[in-house]
Amino acid sequence: MELGMNKNTPNLFIVGAQKSATTSLYNYLKEHPNIFFSSEKEPNYFTTFFDTFPHNGPYDKRYDKNVIGSAEEYYKLFSNYSGQKYIAESSVHYLYFNGLAYKLKEESPDAKIIISLRNPIERAYSAYTYYVSRGRESESFREAIQNENHRMLNNYEVGWYYIAQGLYYQKVKDYLEVFGRENVHIVLFDEIKDDLEGTLKNIYKFLEVDPVTINNTEKKYNVSGTPKNKITKVIASPLKAKSLAKKYLPTPMANKLKDYYFKILEKNLAKTELSVSDKEYLKSVYETDIKKLSVLIEKDLNHWLE
């Protein structure tokens, strides 16, 4: 089965960036009656044309296992589509790979693209603490960013590239050029955080669908943080309760247990601050890219460098 030949080819993609409220957008937009999302939130299918498998970072085998590797598997995710205006999926690593925008255009020429961007300094540290909270990251933040090139050379999965994922300019430029500005909608993490209702209204306008009222906007998704104690470190391990539940329990029961599991985990995560020295270092890394991005997307991003 070839992509592009199926009537269920997606025509709406949330492409990233990771830790920029994409999961929240996915959960809000899937409530719209005219938007059908894949049964798997993050299939990452199109990364398989550019990424190298298997990956070699801690617990990367689990990541690899969840990537949809064939067109047949991919289309099964949309098998319950029933005529909505948009067939959608959300895979944050689609923003990272050079050339992926061209692949999406080839397979879905009329697709709409949503890109959510977060201050790359905050995004890098949030991604780091997220991996800490899930039992994957064991190094200090400074060690982790110093070792990023080593991780790339040893083919860790993209989520480990805390700095590289925040170099947005060229990736966003590709999407704007490939799909046209009229087909790409860019939102900022701060806009979602400060004015969710207005942000969603703008997205509905972009998609030319009627606005709807969203339920449960207070719920937080994929919360990051540092485990408060040893017990939290143990339950945060990807090899513990949630993986066992998925393996041995029926899906509805496993999903309920997973939600309960994350509620317990998130209550036991402490928010930590990025050190002044690490923040200043990241400012120096990102300053040029941020200034170019600001001009490109016509949004004032000076506050990202404060």
From TrEMBL:
Q: Which protein, by its recorded name, is this?
A: Sulfotransferase
A single Pfam family it belongs to is Sulfotransfer_3
InterPro entries linked? NST/OST, P-loop_NTPase
A molecular function annotated in GO for this UniProt entry is:
sulfotransferase activity
Determine if 4Fe-4S is one of this entry's keywords.
Answer: no
Say which domain of life the source belongs to: Bacteria
What PANTHER family does this protein's entry cite?
A: BIFUNCTIONAL HEPARAN SULFATE N-DEACETYLASE_N-SULFOTRANSFERASE, HEPARAN SULFATE SULFOTRANSFERASE
For this UniProt record, the keywords arranged alphabetically read as follows: Transferase
Is Transferase one of the keywords UniProt gives this record? yes
